[in-house]
Amino acid sequence: MRRYFARKLFIYVVTFFLAVTIDWLIPRFMPGNPVQNMLSRAAVRAEAAEVMYGYYTRAFGLDVPVWQQYLNFWNALFHGDLGTSIYLFPTPVTKVLMDAVPYDIFLLLPAILLSWFAGNKFGAFAARTKRLDNTVLPLGYILTATPYMWLGILLAWAFGIVLDVFPIAGAYSYTMAPHLSWTFIGSVLKHWFLPFASLFMIFFGGWAIGMRNMIIYELEADYSHYLEALGAPRKLVRKYAFRNAILPQLTGLALQLGVIVAGALVTEVVFSYPGIGYLILAAIQNQDYFLIQGCFLFIIIGVLLANFAIDIAYVLVDPRTRKGMTGETA
Amino acid sequence: MKKQKKKNEFLYFALRNNKLRIGLIVVLFFLVFAAVGPMLTDHSPREYVGPAGQPPSSEYWFGTTTFGQDVFTQFVYGLYPVFLVGILGGGLGTLIGMLVGFTAGYRGGLVDEGLNVVTNVILVIPAFALLLIIAAYLTVRGFVVESIFIGLTAWPWAARAIRAQTFSLRTRDFVDLARLSGMKPRKIIFTEIAPNMMSYLVMTFILQFGGAILIAATLDFIGLGPTTGISLGMMMQYAVLWGALQLGMWWWFVPPGAAIAAIVGALYVMNVGLDEVFNPKLREM
């Protein structure tokens, strides 16, 4: 088990290093000069602009050699300093992100976990049950093939406009300030429900289909036939099949994280939900170097943490990795 | 002679597999629609042709937009890029996946570890975020450029899957024999290993095809897709941007999403059907 984790940890460290380097690199090769951009929006006199340009370039640390900028970036990173947002000047990027991240966690964690559990259970249940397999599973294919924003738009239209039971923009009512009361919590939940539901449904379809296909493979494996030949009850055979099929599904969750992030991004855009996805779009439209960097960094850290959690779950679920046997090295 | 028989057997099961048949019919329907559709309309996608915000009628089959553009025209013109991006982006993704997967799986050792790290990095760095930046960089973009972006970032899971398959094939006797006979690694991969996982490669391509379509729709929706032409994702973007939701103009945003869901869904169903054709154990009794 130690070897398993040492290996994983090594890969994580290398990945983190490379990812952060790329993260640092890319915005610097973006078109347009952010400081110039900001100043042109402020529209000041020419000589004043020059002074301010010098000031902001220093303030953002763009006046030192590139290698120094890179080292500074790492140094600042470890001090939790991600620079100052240009688009929301003078709010520090860290603060902007900290305001947004809770919404992402609140939206994504339940959607991912619930859909994974429910989808796997349902997929296993539907496999080789002729009626379910032919009626409900096609629905699963359609769901998993549905573009995220389209389902979001449909739900917003049906429940927000036609039935008018759910709000379709923001994280809570515009007339309220965040505070602790039942009406506020109610408003937050009401705004959360539609984006959550649209993400949940699409994820659910994918997991259900994946599980159904895995279970069919497992039920055709030798050990299943052997158990059946021994006269084991159908329920027991399925239980073993499920345990084996859940492993690739766990790996699948790690592989799907990138798609999940993209899905969350457009869903947040459709519902104007103030998470990181919504921020990224604003940051890119305003050419906000530091905010883009910060958003990516948070996504990378989030994805790495999720991967790590999945690795731990893998050890818990698969005894082979615990006993030092190689098992599946995903 | 033997090969002939095997092919017939494949066709026999392929033609009798309902999932494959249904999937294929839906995909072909949209493909024909994409080819013939533009001939059914006299307008161009962005032309202002009639009254604004009309629901579907005999004159405007899918209604009109807030600006009086014909939704049907936009829809049929938007179908073609779906297939273009799918084939180019999905194809490129599969090719890179094969290249990395074969090399890592066959060589093993340090090469494998190195490629594994690369794959992991691409997986963790949200490919999507990367696409966002590159799209912001290139101010003039077409569908081909978009497909290449997608192909360059969508390959990691294909590489992993192909690597695992190669890994298990590489220790088989026939591969050992080829190696003993002095065959070059590249030749072994293409004449011994690849043909034995052909079904797997075809299925990987289909999944990449569908995935590329969905990524393209997402990119177009955010406004980082191509700067010219029209696509289904752009239609949804405009619909949301110009208040189709609030005005209840469902005919504007329902068709493009429905078409994407139908095409990609049909591809996925085809994939399961193919799986059953290639793998006799999975066929339903």
Structure description:
The complex is a heterodimer of chains A (about 325) and B (about 280). Chain A is mostly helical. Chain A has helices at about 1-30, 35-40, 45-60, 65-80, 95-125, 130-145, 150-160, 180-220, 220-230, 235-270, 275-285, 290-315, 320. In chain A, α6 packs across α8 (about 180-220). The two termini of chain A are about 15 Å apart. Residues about 325-330 of chain A have low confidence and may be disordered. Chain B has a single domain, classed as MetI-like (MetI-like fold, Orthogonal Bundle), CATH 1.10.3720.10. In chain B, about 70% of the residues lie in helices and about 0% in strands. In chain B, α3 runs parallel beside α7 (about 155-170) and α10 packs parallel to α11. The longest helix of chain B is centred in the N-terminal third of the chain and has 37 residues, at about 70-105. The radius of gyration of chain B is 22 Å and the shape is globular. Chain B starts with a helix and ends in a 7-residue tail after the last helix.
Describe the secondary structure blueprint for this structure.
The complex is a heterodimer of chains A (330) and B (285).
Chain A: H1 2-28, H2 34-42, H3 46-59, H4 66-78, H5 93-126, H6 130-145, H7 148-162, H8 182-219, H9 222-229, H10 234-270, H11 276-285, H12 289-317, H13 319-322
Chain B: H1 2-15, H2 18-36, H3 71-107, H4 109-124, H5 127-137, H6 143-153, H7 156-169, H8 173-180, H9 185-193, H10 198-222, H11 232-241, H12 250-278
Helix pairs in contact in B: 2-3, 2-12, 3-4, 3-6, 3-7, 3-10, 3-12, 4-7, 5-6, 8-9, 10-11, 10-12, 11-12
